[in-house]
Specification:
Layout: H1 16-22, H2 40-50, H3 59-76, H4 81-91, H5 99-112, H6 117-127, H7 132-145, H8 151-159, H9 168-181, H10 189-194, H11 198-214, H12 224-234, H13 240-255, H14 262-275, H15 278-291, H16 296-309, H17 319-339, H18 344-356, H19 362-379, H20 387-398, H21 405-422, H22 439-457, H23 461-475, H24 484-507, H25 511-525, H26 538-549, H27 554-568, E1 578-585, E2 590-592, E3 598-600, E4 608-614, H28 619-635, E5 641-647, H29 655-662, E6 668-670, H30 672-677, E7 685-689, E8 694-700, H31 706-721
Parallel strand pairs: 4-5, 5-6
Antiparallel strand pairs: 1-8, 2-3, 4-7, 7-8
Helix pairs in contact: 2-3, 3-4, 5-6, 6-7, 7-8, 8-9, 11-12, 12-14, 13-14, 14-15, 15-16, 17-18, 18-19, 18-20, 19-20, 20-21, 20-22, 21-22, 22-23, 22-24, 23-24, 24-25, 25-26, 28-31
């Protein structure tokens, strides 16, 4: 898989006793303390801590080094608020956090200093997302104790911007208080960019531009990207072309500075992306790779370029093309590892290539897997599904080290279970009742079938049946099946169970049982089995092979196919994205498209509207958009139907270059704030709106089959129109 900007989920050791000892007593707030900005000397020392992120270190090592540096700074500057806050940030970095000792440390500090606003604030910010209501109560207490303490306002502004606690008025009021107390601190820029208050955004953009144009501070370079994002939102769409010229001038000025600075190169990269200048972006990336070859950013650029130039083979591509791709992966991974020997992504690329190449040796896979586990432990990351499953599947296919497979699979599964147990469900977003589709359950569906097969082949039938029982319980519906998505989930789960049961039965030499299990799996899978075996459908291959081994003929198999077609009609499932009935009024809107036209709900009156919500950074959206374009062209010219899209990018300047690059012509309304205000937390998403302004159907996700997507979209439109 191509490298993406990662928010790694890391596991690490927490040192509760040591951390508690090094967390100094928090002194009562004093009016002379500058809570908005650290002193010059503290700022310089904190910059050294932050610069660790540019070093080519595994996350776990980098985090531990930053914590150690901050502990020394806590001794050097006892009670300094900004160091305490940064120290807390370092301790809670990553997603694999054991929150219990962290919360206990800061709760104890608060209880020891019940009237210290800093102690209360530091504890309260750990509660946001875990017990946000208590966090709000504590912030109100700080307001009573120290009305001038500014960070409470920013925290409340952020809380009231989340879906569960959404209150635009409270968020704006607190944000404005924060800005009045700390006008030079830029931590509130993200919220300012999200607000619909045009005057606030305009004022913030002007102030920020004035600051950046006169600043020589390296740390300010990171804010150019936020400035350009703000300015694209402030300027009317017809003026975006002129703004791009202005940003190009900014980039010329930045480019004339010292390029031996990753902050400057990062600003250049961000700016060239904003205005869609691929030549400029290539220059900035080339300079970063040349001047900072050991950095994480340089590594990411090099790895991304490989996959840009070597895209993954498509399902319809030949096996020869697939093998050539994996051979190229293997070669490039070997080169990467010479430069970055401890890079987990490079090792995993090498390992994935070896497990797919027909000519790779078992010993090479084993050696690379051992290297991966060593590097993986140091980087403290995880993947869904674990790469252990990929290696286990290879071992099962080759019949190699079968005795090691169960432990290997258990290792990967426990890692995910550990993550899920540490990851508290955030109370900042509406709860997801569809627990059957949790990441952990998806990993179990990938892991347990392999484990059951391994136990069966190791002649441990009791353990194999125990795992089969776990799979049966996992795929059993936990609630009545009510919609297409649930029917599809049920059919997939049953196919998974019976396919696994077939493999266990075959490993135990119960061939007739295995055949019946495979045939049942095919029935639930809903995909016509083949009479001629092929590499692209293992289930069909196994069923056909056993049929022939047991003396079955072509005539008998054709009879089974006919029975299968009759039964399948009773289990028909949707193969495209989920569509749910809504029948709710669509909220009013005032949005502008890329041509500068203003749109409102009244523009849709009397027509059925198909509205697609998307973003340039969304992979499934990019896969779906060609069919949105096709749908738009198909319905173009009709007076009773209109096809629109609403883009949800925060960096709206990227939208127009993206449209031109892909030659899309459908209307694009810039609607980040509208989507956010209507609780849209996932994309792609499609709405079908009736002629009287009601949201009748909502389709979530892209099923991957564009033709089926088109068919379903037209069906939903015609259904709303009242056409049979």
């Amino acid at each position: 898989m191509r490298p993406e900007p990662r928010s790694p989920c890391f596991a690490f050791r927490v040192f509760p006793i040591l951390c508690l000892l090094l967390l100094p007593p928090l002194a009562a707030a004093q009016s002379t303390v500058n809570y908005c900005e650290p002193s010059a000397v503290v700022k310089d020392d904190l910059k050294k801590v932050n610069n660790i992120i540019y070093e080519n270190l595994p996350f776990k090592i980098r985090r531990e080094r930053q914590i150690a540096m901050l502990q020394e700074l806590l001794k050097k500057y006892p009670g300094d608020f900004h160091i305490q806050r940064r120290y807390q940030d370092a301790r809670r970095a990553g997603l694999l956090i054991d929150w219990k000792p962290l919360l206990a440390d800061y709760r104890e500090q608060m209880e020891k200093n019940p009237r210290d606003p800093v102690a209360i604030y530091l504890y309260s910010r750990l509660l946001v997302g875990r017990n946000t209501k208590e966090a709000i109560e504590l912030t109100n207490k700080v307001t009573e104790l120290a009305p001038d303490f500014p960070w409470i306002q920013l925290q409340l502004a952020e809380i009231y911007d989340y879906p569960t606690f959404k209150d635009t008025t409270k968020s704006m009021d607190n944000l404005k208080q924060w800005m009045s107390k700390c006008p030079k601190n830029l931590d509130g820029l993200r919220l300012i960019a999200r607000t619909t208050d045009k005057n606030l955004r305009s004022s913030a953009a002007q102030t920020l531009r004035s600051r950046l144009e006169s600043s020589t501070a390296t740390e300010d370079l990171a804010y150019w990207d936020q400035l350009w994002t703000l300015e694209f939102k402030v300027q009317p769409v017809p003026e975006h072309a002129q703004l791009r010229k202005k940003i190009a001038d900014d980039l010329t000025t930045l480019r004339a500075g010292d390029l031996n600075s990753q902050e400057r190169l990062d600003a250049l990269r961000a700016g060239y992306k904003q205005i869609g200048d691929k030549t400029g972006l290539r220059f900035a990336e080339d300079e970063l790779v040349r001047l900072k070859p050991k950095t994480v950013a340089a590594r990411g650029i090099i790895q991304s370029r490989f996959y840009d130039e070597h895209p993954y083979p498509k399902p319809e591509d030949s096996e020869a093309k697939r093998q050539a791709h994996y051979q190229a992966m293997l070669q490039v991974a070997s080169q990467w590892l010479k430069q970055w020997p401890d890079d987990e992504y490079s090792v995993s690329t090498q390992l994935r290539a070896l497990t797919q190449l027909e000519g790779s040796s078992n010993e090479d896979v084993e050696t690379t897997y051992n290297t991966f586990t060593r590097v993986h432990d140091r980087s403290a990351s995880y993947s869904f599904p674990p790469i252990d499953n990929t290696v286990a599947r290879f071992y099962l296919k080759r019949g190699f080290h079968l005795d090691a497979v169960p432990a290997m699979l258990q290792r990967g599964l426990e890692e995910v279970e550990n993550f899920e147990s540490l990851r508290n469900t955030s109370d900042l977003y509406p709860s997801n009742e569809d627990t059957e589709w949790s990441p952990l359950n998806n990993v179990r569906k990938d892991t347990w079938p392999l484990m059951a097969e391994a136990y069966a082949r190791l002649k441990q039938p009791d353990k194999a049946r125990e795992v089969l029982a776990q799979i049966a319980d996992l795929v059993k519906p936990k609630q009545p099946i009510k919609n297409e998505a649930q029917r599809k989930s049920y059919a997939f789960g049953q196919a998974l169970y019976w396919r696994t049961a077939g493999k266990v039965a075959e490993a135990e030499q119960r061939k007739l049982d295995a055949l019946m299990a495979y045939q049942t799996a095919l029935l639930f899978q809903g995909k016509p089995p083949k009479l001629i075996a092929g590499k692209d459908d293992e289930l069909s291959d196994n069923a056909v092979r056993l049929w022939k081994e047991l003396g079955g003929t072509d005539q008998g198999w054709n009879a089974y196919l006919a029975r299968n077609e009759i039964s399948k009609s009773k289990l028909e499932t949707a193969a495209v994205a989920r569509w749910d009935t809504k029948n709710t009024p669509l909220n009013t809107f005032e949005l502008t498209d890329l041509q500068g036209r203003n749109w409102s709900l009244t523009d849709l009156k009397g027509k059925v509207a198909f509205i697609n919500l998307w973003a340039t950074w969304c992979g499934p959206c990019r896969a779906e958009l060609p069919y949105v374009q096709k749908l738009s062209e198909q319905l173009k010219g009709r007076n009773d139907v209109v096809v629109l899209t609403r883009n949800t990018d925060e960096e709206v300047g990227k939208v127009e270059p993206f449209m031109k690059e892909n030659k899309y012509s459908f209307p694009v309304l810039l609607g980040e704030a509208y989507a956010d205000g209507n609780g849209v937390n996932s994309i792609p998403r499609n709405w079908v709106i009736s002629a009287d302004g009601k949201l009748m159907f909502e389709g979530i996700g892209f099923g991957g089959n564009g033709d089926e997507w088109m068919k379903k979209a037209v069906e939903m439109i015609e259904k709303v129109k009242g056409t049979p």
